[in-house]
Amino acid sequence: MPRIGLKLWNINIDYYLPEARKLYSQGIFDYIELYIVPGHLAELSLWKGLEIPFDIHAPHSRHGMNLAKKKLRETNLQLYAETKTYADELNARHIVFHGGAGGDYKETAKQLENISDPRALIENKPIEPLPFIKEDFYVGSVIEEIGFIKNFAKCGFCLDIGHAFCAANYLGFEPYQYVEQFMRLSPQIMHLSDLKTNGTQDEHLNFGQGDLDLKRLLNILPANMDITIETEKKSKENLTDFVADVRFLLEKIK
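Below the sequence we write its predicted structure tokens.
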């Protein structure tokens, strides 16, 4: 059976934090993957008080971290320092990094090598950026780029299923086969949500709202893969959608 992860942001302290405590005590999930919005170290003690296993997700292009740009090396290191504080204090197993946007994947590899954190995982991305990202493409969308970054920086790999499908569709590849090829890079964890399987931009749909064949997908993946569920949370006051998604996924695994 896979271990199930709940994706939250470090600023989600008003409603989701107490909900997470309750659901963890009920055995609904096994760990939190916490995305770090910069400038919020004051919230760290609240997350530490949960005494729940954590993975950490470093800031991405939306919050100023872009490992693919040489001119941002100093800024990226500052953002990593804050991320590292969270990872250290929460005893995180992994730190997930995006490869950046509009730059060079070899620069991403150099910066991750310089960071040299044994917990680092590089996450694959779609090619087509979301509208708020003012760049033409994401870095780390094709298998060869992820393989280069992983080998050069001596880091691990986080396989995002939606991102893999989006990249495959953009490039004209069969998406399930594209996921199978990504599996050759031995991912440590996986990000999963439903999606429209012919799209090029990830939508983070709740399970059952897209047309992803979960049975087919799960046959491709190792049975004990850690799965962080990255589906939409419609309510700002509870995690009911997440609980439904966990149950939906576990039914498919049986």
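The mean pLDDT is 95.
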